[in-house]
Amino acid sequence: MNQEYPSTLLERAVKEFTKLPGIGRKTATRLVLHLLRKKEAEVAAFSDSILTLKREAKYCKVCHSISDTDICPICSNPKRDHSVICVVENIQDVMAVENTMQYRGVYHVLGGVISPMDGVSPSDLNIESLVARVAEGGVKEIIMALSSTMEGDTTNFYIYRKLSQYNVELSVIARGISVGDELEYADEVTLGSSIINRTPFMGKNI
After folding, report:
1. Does 206 have pLDDT greater than 50?
2. Which CATH number does the domain housing residue 16 bear?
3. Rounded distance, CA 63 to CA 162, Å?
4. For the residues 103-110, what does the mean pLDDT come to?
């Protein structure tokens, strides 16, 4: 047992919490001790919500966002503009764009960005399903709302090349998002402005 912890049970719980992104040992210890002070029913509800999420959560068959059903509420909403698809890296980015209340189209979640250094290739992402959606027809514009990083720009260009044969407008969010910033951490006003003031993507934006 680590001498820092008076209990192997505490040490084990802390170790599991440190596996979460951005959680160090001090924060993990604080969270574990917080849960330890809670009533058993509250801790059970907490753990049950995580297990239920893992077991029952689905991914939309259209856009790949998380959903309780096979088709997410956004994709199944007839009031959304299905002719405009906003391409994002992850589910957090869908939530970030939705919070701006400036966008009424639909989404496509790639599940990451192309990053050879991290071993992420185009085949690891939901790019072919995006091409298939465009090929079906009815899509007028693709908004590429990826983080303004080298990996994001590389992914933008790859998608541009894949969709160049189709009669669809490609645009990229305005660079109100600072270079190197990740989309999910942008404030709502800046992100909303970047969506509204998007510019055509001609493969020369990077």
Report:
1. no
2. 1.10.8.420
3. 18
4. 96
**Number of domains making up the chain:** 2
Instruction: Report how far residue 2's alpha carbon sits from residue 10's, in angstroms, rounded to the nearest whole number.
Output: 10
Tell me which residue has tokens 């912890």.
Answer: 5
Give the tens place of pLDDT for each residue, 40-82: 999 999 999 999 999 999 999 999 999 999 999 999 999 999 9
Residue type, 108: H
Task: Give the Cα separation of 155 and 52 in Å (integer).
Answer: 33
Query: What is the torsion angle, in degrees rounded to the nearest 10, for the CA atoms of residue 198, residue 200, residue 204 and residue 206?
Result: 20
At which residue do the structure tokens 């998380």 appear? 66
pLDDT in tens, 141-173: 999 999 878 899 899 999 999 999 999 999 988
* Residue 7, Cβ density class (10 Å: 0-12 exposed, 13-18 middle, ≥19 buried): exposed
178 has a pLDDT exceeding 60? no
Beta pairing, strands 169-172 & 199-200: antiparallel
Q: CA–CA distance from 185 to each of 4, 87, 94 (Å)?
A: 34, 17, 12
Q: Measured at the alpha carbon of residue 93, what is the angle toward residues 102 and 98, in degrees to the nearest 5?
A: 30
Q: Residue 181: which domain range?
A: 79-200
> String of b and e for 185-204 (b: at least 16 CB within 10 Å)?
ebeeeebbbbbeebeebeee
How far is Cα 154 from Cα 173, in angstroms, rounded to an integer?
15
